[in-house]
Amino acid sequence: MTEYDYWKIFPRMPKKVTIGDITVRDGFQHLEKFVSTRAKIFYAQEMIFAGCRNIEVTNLGNPYLMPQFSDAEEVLAALRSDLFKRRCAKRGINPDDICVTAVTIREGAVDQAIRLKEKGVGPDRCLMMVSTEEQHHFANSGVTLPEYWQEAERAIKKCRDAGLKMCGTVSTIWGSPIAGATELQDAVDFTKRWLSIGASDIEHADHDGSASAPEVYRYFSMILDQIPDTSVHIAHFHETKRVASASILAALQAGITHFEATLGGMGGQPANFLDDCPVPGTGDYYYEDPRYVGLTCLEDMLVQIDEMGIAHGYDVDRVLWLGRQIERTVGKRLRSEAAINGRTLTEGHPKFARPGLSKRKEKLGEQPRQNVPADWSPSAALPERFQP
User: Which range marks the domain in which residue 239 is found?
Assistant: First the structure.
């Protein structure tokens, strides 16, 4: 007979996960509209109050290239303020349990993170990124892979000396939007390379939505066979074909315990236009239609995981409310279905019941929970040709 216990079929699948929020950084970086500093601080703090403990809030690169993050220091400072600490205390949250990340693609940004830390407002964790496909890597960093590895090694040493963590991202694992198909083994090798030079953890990124569920399961199984510490690995999926929820499930089945996402599924390549003016970003967009880029929706991922009975630490209803508010912030309908339709309620929606059912059953002499005619047998007799 078939095994019905999901956790026996997939013994690596976790009973508890960590879901990081990267809305304020990755979610907003693709918008061609400047999001106010107040709004950025609001969503960062409210996501923490809703249960987030791993949050990415800005990019410390050159603000001329990405002016969306010209307020980086102010956003970070708000998360170090006494006011925020008091608000945390009222909710029983220990600020020391919160890991604040800033993206630092180049060494100069790492230097800025260290300067901010010395001022008392810096991040806890930096993030650098390599792509296994060099054209994609060059588009994002402006240097070759060998050059970047040397730069990353220097930056990690600086971070370690300053008391900062460094996350190493591996991108184009399942494909590149520029050069096409890639090899999974290259990403495994890059993961080992990051850890060998001192990275604290690894973001495994599908930055263009190339991943398919079977290949996600295969890749993360390869990773955990060779690097079994699940606390090191973070799954980061983009949504371009409406199949990312299958990738999330496949990663869970393989044993991944740490995910990240954005409210509304926002995000993607940095914008090259902001408000009323072209800006550099990372150059021309490498996709045809901006409506079909973005990350997995945090709201939908959270509901998916919650309804599987997997612990996550969030106030789901609060996150769904924030998902509805952020649509007002950006001025358009985003991609979350759960933010609109909510969770599946075990009690159902009695308000939608049609009147008259109980009276009709009483009139017919039926019992309240009677589902078949009274003279039928309690169980159906399955015809022999349909039997196993």
Answer: 6-341
What confidence tens digit (pLDDT) does each residue in 92-115 have? 999 999 999 999 999 999 999 999
Q: What is the DSSP letter of 92?
A: T
Digit-coded pLDDT (tens) for 308-320: 999 999 999 999 9
Sorting pLDDT into bands at 50, 70 and 90, what band is 265?
A: very high
Structure tokens at 155: 């930056």
Cα 179 from chain centroid?
A: 25
Task: Look at the chain and report how many structural domains it folds into.
Answer: 1
Structure tokens at 117: 């830390």
* Both tokens assigned to 355: 């009147």
Mean pLDDT on 29-43? 97
Please give the full DSSP string across 199-247, using - where no structure is assigned: -SEEEEEETTS---HHHHHHHHHHHHHHS--GGGEEEEEB-SSS-HHHH
CATH number of the domain encompassing residue 202: 3.20.20.70
Q: Distance between CA 175 and CA 180 in Å, rounded?
A: 5
Please state, in angstroms and rounded to a whole number, the distance separating the CA atoms of residues 295 and 267.
6
Residue 95 lies in a domain: yes
Q: What is the b/e burial string over 346-375, where b = at least 16 CB atoms within 10 angstroms of the residue's CB?
A: eeeeeeeeeeeeeeeeeeeeeeeeeeeeee
Nearest to 48 by CA among 245, 313, 295: 313
Nearest to residue 114, comparing CAs of 168, 64, 156?
A: 156
Q: What is the pLDDT of residue 44?
A: 98
